[in-house]
């Protein structure tokens, strides 16, 4: 069913828009409302039929003419407009996705308690599709126990509530509560729509997952290091898809230049020992840990405080190496939380499955994602192919495709093994 229109031009638009995913964009009364215009642009340009439903307060920041021009649909905040079309019911009933951006503390409270005093809150009550909230408010409001309880309630019901970003807020304030980047919100919406119905989308709601990504670097001197080719793209895909499925995500990013995914707490790390400390700390209350980072097996035995110089006519001194901690084996063995699921990645260049099975047995993890790597394989690519080995003897083949597809398969297998699922 398409959005309602009454004019002849509107009827033609209905025909043109049939079959396009229908997205309701709810806009709360916060200064970040202007940033939602960019989210509309990304949604419409990618083939989505968007209808804006602002609150009265939101129109103080961005007027109805702007929302109408961007979406091609009339804009109203009232349930009394076009009553014969029952908009307070129809808009939610016919939507494929509802995203509230920015979601103020007031809107989160109304949604959690089922209040319906305008068109947007009525739409939220009638929607039977996935719902995404992108909060934006001052840090004190976000951290208030009432807001946190409301967020927990919404997540428990299956809504995806994106964690706000950390940064400059209104005025001189800085902290957690900043509106996430519109492009990152769009990626969450895209993944939620790709997943389908709400109960499946939010199958990680209420769960805390830890993901490592990128490649560690082991310094040799102030300007040189031992590293690897990992871009972090697979780990970031795992973080994005987990957030889209409702999880609270901690991403331990080792030397990656990728933008922070929306709704994800990003912890930058450098060396393998840095990563180990971060993993141990983050895994303490995690339901699942997925180690996708390429961790250096070795590091230089000594660090030169000054740049190592070339000596005329002399060969360089050999670089002695020592072992780095085996983070995956340590976490899999210790299991700091009962029922915790631990998954690792094994990048191999030959005898891929044989090495993978041996590594699964030696590490003690629940799942091991085994893929073939090389100079032009996997590292830095947007796509991947793998076999996911399970400690229970299972083998799940993931054909060559987007790294997000592999990420979703990994989370499917994690969800199957989580206690209480």
From TrEMBL:
Residues 209-421 are annotated as: Phosphopantothenate--cysteine ligase. Pathway: Cofactor biosynthesis; coenzyme A biosynthesis; CoA from (R)-pantothenate: step 3/5; Cofactor biosynthesis; coenzyme A biosynthesis; CoA from (R)-pantothenate: step 2/5. Residues 1-208 are annotated as: Phosphopantothenoylcysteine decarboxylase. InterPro entries: CoaB-like_sf (IPR035929), CoaBC (IPR005252), DNA/pantothenate-metab_flavo_C (IPR007085), Flavin_trans-like (IPR036551), Flavoprotein (IPR003382). Binds 1 FMN per subunit. Keywords: Decarboxylase, Flavoprotein, FMN, Ligase, Lyase, Magnesium, Metal-binding, Multifunctional enzyme. This is Coenzyme A biosynthesis bifunctional protein CoaBC. It comes from Streptomyces iconiensis.
């Amino acid at each position: 069913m398409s959005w309602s229109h009454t004019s002849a031009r509107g009827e033609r638009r209905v025909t043109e828009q049939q079959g396009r995913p229908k997205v309701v964009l709810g806009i709360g009364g916060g200064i970040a409302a202007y940033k939602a215009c960019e989210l509309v642009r990304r949604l419409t340009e990618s083939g989505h039929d968007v209808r804006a439903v602002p609150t009265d307060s939101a129109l103080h920041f961005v007027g109805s003419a702007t929302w109408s021009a961007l979406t091609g649909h009339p804009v109203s905040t009232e349930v009394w407009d076009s009553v014969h079309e029952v908009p307070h019911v129809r808009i939610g009933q016919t939507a494929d996705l509802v995203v509230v951006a920015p979601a103020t503390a007031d809107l989160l409270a109304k949604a959690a308690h089922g209040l319906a005093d305008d068109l947007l809150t009525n739409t939220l009550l009638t929607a039977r599709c996935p719902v995404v909230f992108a909060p934006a408010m001052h840090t004190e409001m976000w951290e208030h126990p009432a807001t946190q309880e409301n967020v927990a309630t919404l997540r428990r019901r299956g809504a995806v509530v994106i964690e706000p970003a950390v940064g400059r807020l209104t005025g001189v304030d800085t902290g957690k509560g900043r509106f996430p980047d519109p492009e990152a919100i769009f990626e969450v919406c895209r993944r939620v729509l790709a997943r389908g119905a709400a109960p499946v989308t939010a199958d990680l709601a209420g769960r805390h997952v830890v993901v490592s990504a990128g490649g560690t670097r082991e310094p040799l001197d102030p300007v040189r290091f031992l590293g690897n080719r990992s871009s972090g793209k697979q780990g970031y895909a795992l973080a994005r898809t987990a957030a889209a499925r409702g999880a609270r995500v901690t991403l331990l990013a080792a030397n990656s230049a990728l933008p922070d995914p929306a709704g994800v707490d990003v912890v930058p790390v450098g060396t393998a020992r840095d990563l180990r400390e971060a993993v141990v700390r983050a895994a303490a209350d995690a339901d699942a840990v997925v180690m996708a980072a390429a961790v250096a097996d070795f590091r230089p035995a000594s660090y030169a405080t000054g740049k190592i110089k070339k000596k005329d006519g002399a060969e360089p001194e050999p670089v002695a190496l020592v072992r780095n901690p085996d983070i995956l084996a340590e976490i899999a063995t210790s299991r700091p939380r009962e029922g915790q699921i631990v998954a690792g990645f094994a990048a191999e260049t030959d005898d891929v499955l044989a090495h993978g099975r041996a590594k699964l047995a030696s590490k003690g993890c629940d799942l091991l994602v085994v893929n073939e790597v090389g100079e032009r394989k996997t590292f830095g690519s947007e796509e991947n192919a793998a076999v996911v080995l399970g400690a229970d003897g299972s083998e799940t083949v993931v054909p060559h495709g987007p790294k997000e597809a592999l990420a979703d398969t990994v989370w499917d297998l994690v969800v199957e093994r989580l206690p209480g699922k």
